[in-house]
Amino acid sequence: MGEQKLTDQEREAADAKMVDDAFKHLLDSYLASRHRKKVDIITKAFNFARQAHKGVRRLSGEPYIMHPIAVAQIACSEMGLGSTSISAALLHDVVEDTDYTVEDIQNMFGPKIAQIVDGLTKISGGIFGSQASAQAENFKKLLLMMSDDIRVILIKICDRLHNMRTLDGQPPNKRYKIAGETLYIYAPLANRLGLNNIKTELENLSFKFEHPEKYAQIEEKLASTQASRDTLFDNFTKPIRETLDKMGIEYTIKARVKSPFSIWNKMMQKNVSFDQIYDILAVRIIFKPKDKDEEVDECFRIYVALNKIYKSHPDRLRDWVNHPKANGYQAIHVTLMSNMGKWIEVQIRSERMDEMAEQGFAAHWKYKDGVDGNGAKEISEDEGELNNWLRTIKEILDDPQPDAMDFLDTIKLNLFASEIFVFTPKGEIKTMPAGCTALDFAFQIHTFLGSHCIGAKVNHKLVPLSHKLKSGDQVEILTSNSQHVQPSWINFVSTAKAKTKIQGILRREGREVQKRGEEILDEFLKRNSMELTFAVMDKLCALHEVEKHEQLLQALGDKTIILGDQDLDELQGKNNKKSETSRGWRKYVPFLGKKKDDVEKQQSATSKGYAVVPENFNRKKPIYITDNNINTYIFKPCCHPIPGDDVLGFIDGKNHIEIHKRSCKVASKLKSSYGNRILDAKWDMKRQLLFDATISVKGIDRIGMLNEVTKVISDQFDVNIHKLTISCDEGIFAGVFELLIHDRSDVETVMNGLKTINGVQEVNQTV
Q1: CATH superfamily for domain 691-766
Q2: Which residues are in the HD domain (predicted)?
Q3: Active-site residue set
Q4: In this structure, which topology does domain 9-165 adopt according to CATH?
Q5: Whole-angstrom Cα distance, residue 145 to residue 153?
Q6: How far apart (Å, rounded) are the C-alpha atoms in residues 740 and 721?
Q7: Which residues 6+ apart lie within 8 Å of 674 measured at CB?
Q8: Which stretches of the chain drop beneath a pLDDT of 50?
Q9: Rounded distance between C-alpha atoms, residue 255 and residue 345, angstroms
Q10: What is the DSSP letter of 53?
Q11: 3-class secondary structure per residue, 81-123
């Protein structure tokens, strides 16, 4: 007994030392920073949080306080934030997980820290629990808090980064939910705030947990090609170093290797193999300007010098120095042809630009710590772009989309899109999301301009409203007072502002038309001594085959339905004779008046024998897809999963289970919006069933090429060719093969076999 007690004491002592060491490291990092040294408030926050979380452990078994310390460490070291943020990070879980309130925090640490902790608590508060749109609601709250104090979202990103770093302890379904959310929301958010390092790590961790085998394969490939990359880097940078030394520039040159996630993303998008990705290596030149005022000039002097050493790619120059990205990023990007015959991108930036690129807005926030730390405004947000961004968020939140998925999409479209630069007729520059149209631009300038827009002149040429703008376009909007917002506009605008305004105007106009319809119906009924009731509305909806009352009133208001004798007969019960073509309300009762065997057929077609998830279903356990039960799952056409693919399950609204690839775009939205319905799914197939797979082949045509290709597929690998399409144009052979295969390994074996054929240049799989 004594021995056991001693062991417990030893464990407590070890835990206490671990916690003390972690906090000491945090304080050392803070003291090494450029911030005013407000150690007292940080120590007070740590002691308070340590006491509040006493006795609680994480899933990994370590004391819970290690998590807030780790989040504070990220805020301090990786974001460069000050004492207020570090204290709030240490306290971020106290209100949510213990009996302390926001008022307690305010009394002890002042209103600023309390406001941030309150914001963080509201984001993760479980009031939306099991509701479908919980994640979107949390995100909405996150943005609301962010528009009050940007530090709320910065600490939330730190919290998410630490959760991702320690995700191993979670069950797979929870891992897919958290990784999906991270990739869909937090990584783009970090990118938009200019936190490049954190964005890259969040992407890589998401990829690692969702596709562990593919991640390991890419890591292995990167390690095995490291030596050849080092040689290329040394040979390429040698003449650059000599030139910069002669120019007397103080600089460092770094190799930047593409992240595993970026490589995999490119492999997926371009349908290419690892060996076909040529921009894995980039070179970064970071210089110290002799004079702050000459920073931009020095960038271009280095650019000119590089052009004398190597030939540059004419279409790949990016000047982010004179036109910084909306997240503050500045650099010149130029792609040069190395002596080894490879294109290499070179990024030229000053030390200040480099710090901005790695730490984003956090790198140049000015902190004005108050004397007592109570209520003094610590951030002077003089960054115009950031304020514009927050203003956009507020506009979206004023009239958010009712549907969770739409809301997330609207936010993503507007806030995370890459930017283009567009000029007004007077030469002012406007930053717009890539893919935006002339109508988006009109709404960006003014709602009146957008709602009365009839067309635009782009570079002095007349274009329609749906014309997509490119960087450098000069745009003049043409209006007419007789123009009104059209419902079709919603299909081609992409910015949140335009979508929100169009929907708002249409809703307002729709309400006016419905009101007019209600007045027409009321007048009709009064003339015939009847009252407006739900029963009356139901009968008229059934007669005109309209599903909702609002649609009926809309149709009456815009006169697409005109009330007459038929309506009167229906309401008075005289309209017994139904036309065969219009079954009226009967079409909403699917089995009425049908034969028994017809009913059974329809019922089986409706249910198709899909598995129904019971209420007490354990969502932490994986589901296994076997040859026998595969038909009880729904396989969506969006990603066409086959055995061997990394997949997940999703419980739909009817409690059936859909199967998606983990990399599927639809699945990424589901993980973000309906994370509590995600299941871990695994294959347990015995290679009895056959599945469709389509492979395309391209190469230099020659005699016998087709024969060799079909021989590889059918003879060597015993795979059935279901259908093939062949074309030959100017010596280029192209074939599309629809195959019947057992699983993913069959597809890879066939593709690898095809790549060995002489003359074959490209082999891809299409969904």
Answers
A1: ACT domain (3.30.70.260)
A2: 64-164
A3: 96-97
A4: Hypothetical protein af1432 (1.10.3210)
A5: 8
A6: 6
A7: 132, 133, 135, 404, 650
A8: 1-3, 125-133, 365-385, 400, 402, 404, 577-607
A9: 10
A10: T
A11: CCHHHHHHHHCCCHHHHCCCCHHHHHHHHCHHHHHHHHHHHHH
